[in-house]
Amino acid sequence: MSRTPKTMREKSGVLRADGSARVIAMALVFAVSAGLATAQEIELRGNVSEDEITATLLSRDGVRPGQEAEVRQDVAPEPYIPVSEGALPETESGTDPARAGAAEDDPAPADDPFASDGLFTRSEPAGRVSVRERRRQPENEPRRASSRTGGELDGATEPEGEAEDEDVVEATASVRQPTIDSLDEEANSGVEAENPRTDAIEGRDFELEEEPYAPLGLRLGTFDVNATLEQGLRWTTNVDSSPTGEEALLSETQLRLQGSSDWSRHAARFSAYGTFLKSVSGADYEDPEGGFDAALDFDLGGGYSASAGLNYSLRPESASSPVIIVGTASQPLRHIVGGNLGFAKNVGKLRLAATGTVEREIFSDAELSGGGTLSQEERNSTLATIALRTGYEVSPALIPFAEVELGRRFYDLELDSSGYARSADRLALRGGVAFDFGEKLTGEISAGWLRETFDDTRLEAVSGPSVAAELSWSPERGTVVTLTGSTLVEGTTTAGESGSVLYSGLLGLSREVRANVLLEASLGADYRDYVGSADNETTLRAQAGATWWLNRHVGITGNVRHETFESTLPDRDWQATSVFLGLRLQR
């Protein structure tokens, strides 16, 4: 027992004192010994070592150093709750005042001699946040909630922690599984009626067609073909459009075919027509007329494209032709056969194209009034040209261009009946604009200068302005305006004369006033300029017509036409007026 005070004084750091200090120490020892003896009888039931006595003296509230975490985890201290409400003031944070006071007492006092000793520093149990840490946390940072297995929460319970715990409970709770029958969709679905009731025809909503009277067309291979047949009667005041023409009633039959391909890459189209006029009463007259036109467009890839075309036309030569044949019973038939082949290349916005054209003109023999025929072989010729065009794409819808055309006209006979060599070299320069605004406006228009120089120097060269146009304009739905124009060099067999230049233009208008009513009108003009002479001729024509469709396949059509021909040459003027009424069939 004599070692105990000495050991206690060494471990507690108490300095040796005088005799009074000894007396105090001895009293303390006797008090501790009495407490240990009592503890031995109640709990320990054995000898008590010196170390256990020291630990007991240095502990607080009966808890030894190093065991605070275990005790706090097993048993949570119960906060003081007064019986009377309002005995203790509420804190601003809303926590229990008793609990808040206990939290403030957790730190060791500043005069605690053992507070700085690392061996006896209190450690917070796992899962709890100390008061110091809570004070250092920002106000907007949520506090961590203690585990529910530890009993009470440390401080105020946070709603977020409760939500997380509730999620865990819901996720881990038992979920009722659906029955096997409920998973069988086929068994649970209702049986559809095999014979549903059909709605009344009067109650159905029918979709209106945009063009209910448009032709259905025929399918021939990969082509969609439309056919139109017109049959009617035409009354005219001048049956052959000549200065001596007579009145007559004619039967007029016309057949037209149009087709286009539905190929994915290339395109093809064609059109053909045939017209036959035969006198029913009045002057004897018979006039066959017809022709066809076909075109192919090829997409070669890499900015290259190609095109090819073929055309043919047959009609009697007009009585107003510049070549006057005396003593004929009827005008000779005129055949025109032509073909073209072109290549184009796009280089950025630059458009380059080259087109070669061959046109063959053939005249049949003329029938004489006194019998026999007159050969027109000296008038037969072939024109071969090549046109080089350069354009620039200002926009996809607007391409201005410049074009030069080189060619030669070959006559079948090197010398005509008068001894003139009429073969000639051809040169033309043009400038124009091509349009492509979709359905609104398409086509091109150009103007320039044309010249043909004959091999025979005695003949004056044919030269003059050159104009060309092919436009289609739709200002509004159901209305189409077309404009065509051309310049043609006409030869002659008259001795010492070079020929003439013919300018032609036609303006057309079509309007659908109703789905089954179509109105049409046109104005045309021709001007012929004789080379080396002041003579000229003018032709004016106007026409108006209408078509009333009874159904998609049958319609009634009619038109009125008037023509006037004036010439500076003697005995060449004439006028003609005609009226047509007939039936139009289409498919």
Automatic annotation (TrEMBL):
Residues 155-169 have a biased composition (Acidic residues). Residues 64-75, 130-144 have a biased composition (Basic and acidic residues). Pfam families: BBP2_2. It comes from the Bacteria. Residues 64-196 are annotated as: Disordered. This is Outer membrane beta-barrel protein.
